[in-house]
Amino acid sequence: VQLQASGGGLVQAGGSLRLSCAGSGRIFDRDSMGWFRQAPGKEREFIAAISWSGGTKYSAASVMGRFTIARDNAKNTVYLQMNSLKPEDTAVYYCAAKSGNFALGSMMYSRDDAYDYWGQGTQVTVSS
Length: 128
Hints:
With 128 residues, the chain is mainly β. The chain has no helices and eleven strands. The strands form two sheets. Strands 2, 4, 5, 6, 9, 10 and 11 form a seven-stranded mixed sheet that branches. A four-stranded antiparallel sheet has the order 1-3-8-7, with no helix packed on it. Strand 5 and strand 6 (57-59) form a beta hairpin. It starts with a strand and ends with a strand. The mean pLDDT is 94.
């Protein structure tokens, strides 16, 4: 099982980036997917998650209205569209996969220990 995150880079505040996470080695369209980030000296933070069908999405309050998660199961890829980026969005961004869906109302989607597989991370740096 492999998750390959890409799309990070250096962008000015107010700009946009789209991260991609390509999955291989398993049945991708039966996995829930999540994005997390970790800034230097801080704990890993939940950003967004999406059910295996794409019909249910969750976002952290800190990125709601700016970041959008989506997936294309035909391409085994999940995306994180990031708009109106701020310097505080600077972090390494990780994608993660969990077999099956999260129970509605459980909020397990926001816990990193709920995921089974992790990608290697991609650096996002937002300059002011």
